[in-house]
Write a structure and sequence with these properties.
heterodimer, A: mainly alpha, 77% helix, globular, B: mainly alpha, MetI-like fold, 15 helices, 76% helix
């Protein structure tokens, strides 16, 4: 009698596991884990995506990538892009957050306004700015006499690069502001008051008191902008589409081209895996470096 | 002494207000330019880009953009995908996150670890087999298939946020419910779910913005013309041979508008989500 009820209880518990865990877990395993491991496997083969059979070629794809100058040009392009976007958007985001942490009028309105660019996403972001670069910037150039504005955007590698940096910074500064604002509001006013009583200048309070206390936010902000800009794709195809002569092509676009346009699925997979490794290494290095500077409150 | 300090503070605040207001105007200039010029014929745009539409005001661009984008249809597809995809994060991941937190054992800990570790893996790491896999599973070229793909892609982030929320909920009430004979399913939906509603909203807003704006994955799964989302029909509009900026600007405004309305309504959740779900972006 007792063993029957125990059996029943066990079955019910197993059923609960199925109800609660199975849907998400099955989806995750089938659509996330499976293609991930498949892609690792493909990167060791010479599959073209059309033929049914393929050979395992070992690390040949990876060796080939190392002599692919086009790939390393776009890798360098992407890393440089991520570097400037990270510096600019975090600096701007921090300045805005610092200003907004004071008791200024219409704070909430301003906060929402600064965040607005972030909701314009995907290819739309790039198209909006194509118009700004081609039609508004020349007008500003004429009005102010600054030639930099009136240059022909998207015709040289460097102008395309800076165009991408500008747009990405515009889009993500408000996001960084939110991150820093969360950090700044968690700083206890006691520390600042104590520093004021001790006669510290506001410059010193900012760099010696506030900044060390919000290092966790700095870690987070840098991490997010590095990862997001290394992964850029939508903005790339909509704003420059790699022009001129594929010189403004970030890595994801290069991978996409290799895998789907020239049907080298194996080779493309190897390139993609290298991108993933580069993202992991850079972001882990950054987190290790900045979290060392964190202090407890 | 205190008076002068106070006055210094006041001028300080005033300066900051001015500075931030200027920054805000600068940030919002692109929106102004796009919207104002979408109501003008092309000749007027090149004459004075800053001017209000005035006598040349026209809604022709909007009629044309609506027709060329097949906007009604794209909007419908995008809305269906965004709404039903949220089911995954809110229902499935909510339940999984709850179960993982409340039943710590070897199995659930392993699941949690793998799911969280996957947050660090960008879509690029699986996109090449992904497009073939969706074809094989008959998920491609169907709105339901697209929804299922999003259900899977959101598992990592949504489960992560929910587990954090469940940890903050005291367990005593659940125990009491269990003693009263409430089963796990009812306990979750009647007792736990109402207490983690805030995080559920956060998950839903982060996901909605993502689903709405997604391009890379969506274009792999949906290639049929009738299934285009706003992002995809926008991309094809800009690749057309007879491209004109006046119509394109109206199209851009139309595409931004739904998300703008969403942002105004759910502003608090979006901004809370921006710092809570900051792990992914």
């Amino acid at each position: 009698m007792q063993s029957v009820s125990r059996f029943k209880r066990k079955t019910l518990e197993a059923l609960d596991y199925v109800i609660f865990m199975a849907p998400a877990l099955i989806l995750f395993v089938v659509l996330c884990l499976t293609p991930f491991f498949q892609q690792i496997w493909y990167s060791f083969t010479n599959w073209n995506g059309i033929k049914a059979d393929y050979d395992v070629v070992g690390v040949a794809n990876y060796v080939k990538v190392f002599s692919d100058t086009k790939f390393w040009t776009s890798m360098w392009f992407t890393i440089k892009f991520a570097f400037f976007v990270t510096i600019f958007s975090n600096t701007i985001g921090f300045i805005w957050a610092y200003g907004l942490s004071k008791s200024i009028p219409m704070r909430n309105f301003m906060r929402a306004g600064f965040y607005m660019p972030k909701i314009v996403g995907g290819v739309i972001l790039g198209f909006v700015w194509r118009f700004i670069f081609q039609n508004l910037f020349p007008v500003i150039g004429q009005l102010t006499g600054v030639d930099w504005f009136s240059q022909m955007w998207f015709t040289t590698a460097s102008s395309s690069f800076w165009a991408l940096v500008i747009v990405m910074t515009w889009s993500s500064s408000g996001y960084m502001m939110i991150i820093y604002l969360a950090g700044l509001t968690s700083v206890s006013t006691d520390y600042i008051e104590a520093a004021v009583v001790d006669g510290a200048k506001s410059r010193h309070i900012l760099f010696k008191v506030i900044l060390p206390l919000i290092m966790p936010s700095v870690t987070q902000g840098l991490f997010l902008s590095i990862v997001n800009s290394l992964r850029m794709y939508d903005l790339n195809i909509s704003l420059t589409n790699g022009n001129p002569f594929r010189l403004s092509e970030a890595v994801t676009m290069n991978v996409y081209q290799t895998a789907f346009s020239s049907n080298q699925l194996g080779y493309g997979s190897a390139k993609a895996m290298i991108l993933v490794i580069v993202i992991a290494v850079i972001s882990l290095l950054q987190v290790a470096l900045t979290s060392k500077k964190e202090v407890s409150q | 002494m205190t008076l002068s300090l106070k006055r210094r503070n006041q001028t300080n605040t005033a300066l900051w207000t001015l500075f931030l207001a200027a920054c805000l105007c600068l940030t919002l200039v692109p929106f102004y330019i796009i919207i104002v010029n979408s109501f003008k014929p092309y000749a007027e745009i090149s004459r004075d880009i800053f001017a209000w539409p005035g006598s040349s005001f026209t809604t022709y661009n909007y009629h044309e953009a609506w027709r060329r984008l097949n906007f009604g249809n794209s909007l419908k597809n995008t809305a269906i995908i965004s709404i039903f995809s949220n089911f995954g994060g809110v229902v499935f991941c909510g339940m999984t996150g709850y179960w993982i937190t409340r039943h710590p054992n070897r199995f659930t800990r392993l699941c949690f670890f793998v799911i969280i570790a996957f947050m660090a893996i960008p879509f690029q790491a699986l996109m090449i087999p992904f497009s073939r896999l969706t074809t094989k599973l008959h998920l491609s070229n169907s709105l339901l298939g697209m929804v299922v793909c999003f259900w899977a892609m959101t598992v990592s982030l949504s489960t992560f946020i929910i587990t954090g929320a469940v940890k903050a909920v005291p367990e005593e009430i659940e125990c009491a419910a269990k003693i009263d004979g409430c089963n796990a399913f009812r306990t979750y939906w009647l007792i736990v779910f109402p207490q983690i509603k805030g995080s559920i909203f956060t998950v839903a807003t982060i996901n909605t913005l993502w689903f709405w704006n997604d391009y890379l994955m969506t274009q792999m799964v949906l290639s049929k013309n009738s299934l285009r989302t706003i992002q995809i029909s926008m991309q094809s509009l800009f690749n057309e041979a007879f491209f004109a900026w006046d119509v394109a600007l109206a199209a851009l405004t139309l595409s931004i508008l739904p998300l703008f309305i969403f942002f105004v309504i759910a502003q608090k959740q979006v901004l809370a989500g921006a710092s809570a779900g900051a792990v992914k972006g």
